[in-house]
Specification:
The complex is a heterodimer of chains A (261) and B (228). By secondary structure, chain A is of the alpha/beta class. Chain A contains 9 helices and 10 strands. Chain A has a domain of 167 residues: Rossmann fold, CATH 3.40.50. In chain A, 40% of the residues lie in helices and 25% in strands. Chain B has 8 helices and no strands. The chains are: A alpha/beta (261), B mainly alpha (228). Chains A and B meet through β6 and α3 of A and α5 and α6 of B. The structure holds adenosine-5'-triphosphate and magnesium ion.
Chain lengths: 261, 228
């Protein structure tokens, strides 16, 4: 069974339809790359998955559980949405780290707040916090940032900030980790270190949805690729197949722009 | 005619009394204007259009006219036009009227600063909190509040220092603050008249007080310098 099923999602802003009939599924442990030109709706799709936008139509199912169904208002209750979001992790193009917290604190904050709400927190506060800290340090270590744990975001390079953001998203153990152009805000010499981290996550079978303009990366790391064009999925399939042998004219045009570079 | 040495205790006694009134007006204004400014800021950002426009027009009027006019109107209007003074008599009445004028005036200035502070925190901060499963109030208190405070401290500091000196405007309705106290010795009070030097000393009070505040606010600003 697929870990993620997206069924016929539609989304309009005012009178413009930004997503039309978006339908795909993703297997556990696989990486899906979403490519497509600017304005084709890639970010909007990720935002729908993370409940930052509410689709007008369609369904989102994770591990058989219907998280969202446009025909069922019961799936949209504000207090449930908060917990449903935790199925997904999100890494933003602009990192969005919290500037007043150190790298380590950024990674720990959400877990601390979630634990606080659980019964029995007060009695075991020390152990719980120690556990969260240990876990956060492991994640930073995995990101190659153990020596940057106490740095504030403004003291880190863009590539380091993005790796902290990845650790922060992983800290909540999401089922599916989403990336929205994780390297687009980085200087070219810093993209490599972030892509390397994502590649190693793929090697460890992390389920991921990655919006990217790095075609070689998508081809090598992703299992599947979706090409979006003006709000629809124009082509999808095996990553190598789609990127090396696209069938649609629009996909060919789009990919040729990258080949020229 | 007494010597300056003999006049000094009398003068400083009077200036101290005046300065207490100045300080009272200063702190009462801040205490009232900090929260009222927040209310006005929310009004000026309201999704409900009539409220937003009304609030912004009000802020525009208050910020676009001199505080001195506002003081005079607020103090005299009820008595002269409505035929009934609502402020009560004497120094207490004058203080109440002055406090209301100052609070409303400064709240409008603060509201604009708050609004700028709130709007300057990038949307992405809120969204990052949401996708991490935080509630709106957790996001406000744990993520955005401190960033807002950091951004509003410098402009609020300027307003606070301005307020120190603006309190003297209450002189126009004869509030017995420090300028009033110093000026009394020009015209004559307690056997001392035609003396300008007490006024110079009022300036020293202001300088010392605004100096202390500048240091405190600068310290606060540096405290928040650890992040960007
Ligand atoms: N909040 C919004 N209100 C109105 N229109 C929006 C909003 N968000 C996105 N859009 C529009 O929806 C379309 C798709 O935007 P989206 O950001 O999803 O594209 P994208 O594929 O991520 O593009 P890019 O590669 O530039 O990031 C665009 O035409 C955009 O202008
Ligand atoms: Mg985008």
């Amino acid at each position: 069974m697929a870990i993620l099923e997206v069924r016929n999602i539609e989304k309009s802003f005012g009178s413009t339809k930004v997503l039309k009939n978006i339908d795909f599924s993703l297997e556990q442990g696989q990486a899906l790359a979403i490519i497509g030109s600017s304005g084709s709706g890639k970010t909007t799709l990720l935002r729908c998955l993370n409940f930052l936008e509410r689709p007008d139509k369609g369904k989102i199912v994770v591990q058989g559980e219907t998280l969202f169904d446009a025909d069922d208002p019961a799936t949209m209750r504000e207090k449930d949405v908060r917990m449903k979001r935790l199925h997904f992790g999100m890494v933003f193009q602009s990192f969005n780290l919290f500037p007043q917290y150190t790298a380590l604190e950024n990674v720990m904050l959400a877990n601390q707040l979630l634990e606080k709400e659980k019964p029995g927190f007060k009695e075991h506060k020390k152990e719980i916090y120690a556990q969260i800290e240990e876990h956060a340090k492991e994640l930073l270590d995995k990101m190659g940032l153990s020596d940057r744990a106490d740095h504030y975001p403004h003291q880190l390079s863009g590539g380091q900030q993005q790796r902290v953001a990845i650790a922060r998203a992983l800290a909540l153990h999401p089922d599916i980790l989403c990336f929205d152009e994780p390297t687009s805000a980085l200087d070219p010499e810093l993209t490599g270190e972030v892509l390397k981290v994502i590649r190693s996550l793929a090697d460890q079978n992390t389920t991921m949805v990655i919006v990217t303009h790095e075609m070689a990366f998508a081809r090598d790391v992703a299992d599947q690729v979706i090409f979006m064009d003006e709000g629809i999925i124009l082509e999808q399939g095996d990553a190598r197949q789609v990127i090396e042998h696209p069938t649609q004219e629009r996909t060919k045009q789009f990919l040729s722009r990258f080949a020229e570079k | 005619m007494s010597t300056i040495m003999e006049q000094m205790p009398i003068v400083f006694q009077a200036l101290n009394v005046g300065f207490v009134q100045t300080l009272k007006l200063f702190f009462v204004t801040l205490l009232g204007a900090f929260p009222l400014g927040l209310v006005i800021a929310f009004g000026s950002m309201s999704g409900f259009r009539p409220l937003r426009y009304l609030t912004r027009i009000f802020v525009w009027i208050i910020r676009g006219t001199p505080l001195m006019i506002q003081l005079l109107i607020i103090y005299y209007f009820p008595g002269l036009v409505l035929g009934k003074t609502i402020w009560g008599g004497g120094e207490d009445g004058r203080f109440l009227a002055a406090a209301v004028s100052f609070i409303v005036n400064y709240a409008c200035y603060f509201s604009e600063i708050y609004r700028g502070g709130i709007q300057s925190v990038p949307k992405g901060q809120q969204e990052a909190g949401l996708v991490l499963g935080m509630t709106k109030s957790q996001i406000f208190f744990k993520v955005t509040l401190l960033q807002m405070i950091k951004r509003i401290v410098p402009p609020i500091s300027n307003e606070i220092i301005t307020l120190v000196k603006d309190t003297s405007l209450a002189r126009i309705i004869a509030l017995q603050e420090i300028i009033w106290a110093g000026q009394a010795f020009l015209k004559g009070s307690q056997g001392i008249s035609g003396q300008i030097w007490p006024l110079f000393f009022t300036a020293v009070y202001y300088l010392v007080f605004s100096g202390i505040l500048t240091l405190l606010l600068g310290w606060l600003e540096r405290k928040l310098d650890y992040f960007k």
